[in-house]
Design a protein that fits this description.
The chain is an all-alpha fold and 154 residues long. Helices cover 66% and strands 0% of the residues.
């Protein structure tokens, strides 16, 4: 009779996932506010900002959440990270393709430009949060009784 070894499940604190969602929403509000100030009063400005954020924000929030799901094998960890990337990129790319085929009238604000700015801002925030949350304090070298922490989790 063989006994399966216990499965080690890598989890991330729910608090850091919620904080990440809040940070993404704050960054989105700041960038959308800046876009509104810069182009909101121009022809098609409000429409361009609305289209851009409708294409960016759901994917960014879902991508962050999916990438933070618990996993029990390296393959599932990689799959959740790749699923997060796919969710973050799919809708903006489809929207960008549609905007390329159907450009705005001349003299109006381009939603494609607003979309790229919004995407890059949220991508930078997402990457920064992954880097910051990745760092874990390790136990001091002088305490031999504490087990070493691996870099599991993200």
């Amino acid at each position: 009779m063989t006994v399966d070894p216990p499965v080690h499940r890598v989890t991330r604190p729910l608090g850091s996932t919620v904080v990440g969602i809040a940070v993404l929403l704050v960054v989105a509000a700041m960038v959308a506010g800046a876009q509104w100030i810069l182009t909101g009063n121009q022809a098609g400005g409000v429409r361009a900002i609305t289209i851009a954020w409708a294409a960016i924000l759901p994917g960014a929030l879902l991508g962050w959440t999916i990438a933070r799901l618990p996993f029990s094998s390296p393959a599932m960890g990689a799959a959740s990270g790749l699923a997060g990337i796919l969710l973050r990129m799919a809708l903006p790319l489809v929207c960008l393709a549609w905007l390329t085929v159907h450009p705005p009238p001349p003299g109006t604000v381009s939603p494609a430009n607003q979309l790229v700015v919004a995407y890059l801002a949220l991508l930078a925030a997402d990457i920064a949060m992954h880097v910051i949350l990745r760092k874990q304090p390790s136990p001091p070298e002088s305490d031999p009784l504490l087990p070493r922490r691996s870099r599991e989790g993200d």
